[in-house]
Amino acid sequence: FQTPAALHSDMAKLVSVVAFLWSVEGALHVVDFHNSSWTLTNGNGSVSIKVANATNTHLNLMQAGVLQGDPYYRDNEVAWRWVALEAWTYSTSFASTAEVLAQTRQTLRCQVDTISSILINGREVGRTYDAFVASELDVTGLLRAAGLANTLQVVIHPPLQYAAKQARKYP
């Protein structure tokens, strides 16, 4: 049996939200979402859990008791494959500041370790396809007034479906 920390480093990461930075002209206002309160929800809403960090769907589901036991024990890998076949959404809220809103451009910088869509207040601002490429997404005009809640969502797309779609593009 592996500890959650060892399991986290050994399992294929579905998502790794590294950092989000609001770039404003001549200044950098950092909003670090690593220790934010996140919600992880599957595509049909039948699973919805609170998580401390948006890091790994399997690990988060194990910590919440949705997945029980060791993923490498007997047939658990097969029993848990439903996780990889579903879309998962990590979501959190944050407030904008007057200082950020006063700038002419706001940018969301992130790095996600899988195929994903990134949304601000329900509007898609970008997609990720590569763990080694950071994304810089223009969110100018999408943030709500200072003090009001904004929503950040990272939708993790099922990798098998994405791979099958990409394969169909080639003879």
**Beta-strand residue fraction:** 25-35%
Measure the end-to-end span.
43 Å
Q: What is the number of helices?
A: 5
Q: What is the CATH superfamily?
A: Galactose-binding domain-like
Structural class: alpha+beta
Broad shape: globular
CATH first level: which class?
Mainly Beta
What order do the helices and strands follow? HEEEEHHEHEEEEEH
Kindly state the percentage of residues in helix: 10-25%
As for the CATH topology, it is Jelly Rolls
Indicate how many domains the architecture comprises: 1
User: Radius of gyration from the CA trace?
Assistant: 17 Å
Widest β-sheet, arrangement of strands: 4-3-5-10-7-8
DSSP E strands, number = 10
Largest sheet entry: 6 strands, antiparallel
Give the overall pLDDT as a whole number: 81
- Residue runs with pLDDT of under 50 for 5 or more positions: 1-25
CATH architecture: Sandwich
Would you write up a description of this structure?
This is Beta-mannosidase-like galactose-binding domain-containing protein. Keywords: Glycosidase, Hydrolase, Signal. One of its GO terms (molecular function) is beta-mannosidase activity. The protein has helices at residues 4-10, 57-63, 76-79, 98-101, 159-168, and strands spanning 20-24, 27-31, 38-42, 48-51, 88-95, 107-110, 116-120, 123-128, 135-138, 149-156. By secondary structure, the chain is of the alpha+beta class. The protein has one domain (4-168): Jelly Rolls. The protein has a 6-stranded antiparallel sheet, covered by helices on one side. Strand 7 (116-120) and strand 8 form a beta hairpin. The chain is globular and about 55 Å long.
